[in-house]
User: Fold these one by one.
Assistant:
Number 1:
Amino acid sequence: MKERSYVESAKVAGASDARIVLRHLLPNVLPLSFVYLAQDAAIAIITEASLAYLGLSDFTAHSWGIMLHDVQAQGYVFTAWWWLLPPGIAITLVAASFYFIGFSMEDVANPQRGENRWR
């Protein structure tokens, strides 16, 4: 971004570094940072649930991965499958919602790139 022509023009015009960052760079970078934040939140949820399922997290904390681990450890995967569905569906829905929010924010942040995605 700092190599773009409008930043070079602002430097030539005598704008300070703080003004260039606040006025030219930040408004263009901020929407993209929200996109990456939303997508990273989904990755963090899946990672935490995976580590909890494997037993590599705090077993005293409440987690969907620990719920899945407990069902599997007790041997109720096939006999009491209704204990397995709520945490699995919750992980899937929350992670998918963060991904969809990220994709929607990307379309808002960069409309030229996202217009052909859904066709």
Number 2:
Amino acid sequence: MKASKSITPRAHPLWLAYALHRLSGLGLALFLPLHFWVLALAVTNPGQLDRFLQLTDSGIIKLAEFGLVFLLAVHFFGGLRLIALEWLPWTAPQKSLAAGAAAVSFMVATLFLLKAI
């Protein structure tokens, strides 16, 4: 009788997708209080909002904005992946196409970042 290999959870190919989805959700949750504070400045103190928005012209802030958009995309597509895995039958070629689409999306986002910097 042949012994079957057992795969540890972290060695499974989709574990990275699981981890990225959870970490992106955590990153977005940490960003939300700052976002709501800036929105409140628009209503309560426009002068302070203008000073804050002047900071957004620096390269490090643009890099952080890229990171935020990347987190949003990862979390959004991770959620769509979960829905698709639950509701749709997948074949191996379809999984490869989905991974390729994610890679192309990342490259397009990187090009937008490079243009902004």
Number 3:
Amino acid sequence: MRSAIAEAGGHATLMRAPDPLRASVAVFQPQEPGKAALSARIKTAFDPSGVLNPGRMYADS
């Protein structure tokens, strides 16, 4: 579903789902590599110790 939405220029956010699905699917639409790298640099600049909501937006953040 997310790939079809992305092709149309949109994105999808998982709002509600059973726990097993939430554990296996990212909450937010995965970012393209350039945006993901920029987001990581911004987060590191504001939170160098990684204490603010670790893993909340993306599993590796």
